Amino acid sequence: IEARLSDGPLKGKRIVVTSGPTHEPIDPVRYIANRSSGAQGTAIARALASLGAQVVFVTGPADVPPPEGVEVVRVQSARDMRAAVLAALPADAAVMAAAVADWRVASESKSKIKKTKGALPVLEFEENPDILAEVSQMVHGRPGLVVGFAAETDDVIAHATAKRARKGCDWIVANDVSPETGIMGGTENAVHLISDAGSEDWPRMGKQAVADRLADRIAAALS
Ligand code: CTP
Ligand code: CA
Description:
The chain is of the alpha/beta class. It has 5 helices and 14 strands. It has one domain: 3-Layer(aba) Sandwich (Rossmann fold).
């Protein structure tokens, strides 16, 4: 709470931020997940709080600790994350930085699956709810600004622009996670901000600097 500026430009604004991976259980000891340290989402929540926002930080099991001065809601699966996000609404803005697993294992085993010679397990999957698309397409109580992320390879801006249209969010923060960029798992990020005005290319900078710049843009958009 000390980190929250009492009179910053986001004073009185409630913002939901998702961060980290989700874990989709296979059995009591195994899960599937996306790679995500939670660093970028954590930096965004910190930046928004430092501008005075009331932040609800919905986080999967991340490597980095949550920031000071936010309300932390810890979740495991995509379905838990969806429920926590919906429970945190209404909000003035939502920033979905989580690396949500696209699929969950269809029938989670309550018992540990044992290794049996000559027999490999076969996992069936079901699609997880798309939290960003659902919040973006809310008819009642949609946050005024919905921001998604897109970690892409190849034609990053084309993929992210199509993703923005498909999901119905206002902005997409897109980055190139091809191995040769060294972005994935690193401390820096090079992003493109995709909006109805097109694509803005930001220089490569630290993740906190990306977050601070994004928070300034969110403050301007909500004012
Ligand atoms: N997202 C979400 N719920 C999901 C999947 C994704 O809220 N089930 C959000 C992410 O937090 C991110 C954005 O949607 O803000 C884009 O995620 P991404 O995985 O890039 O999009 P997908 O539609 O899953 O497309 P892809 O096939 O590229 O994984
Ligand atoms: Ca995905």
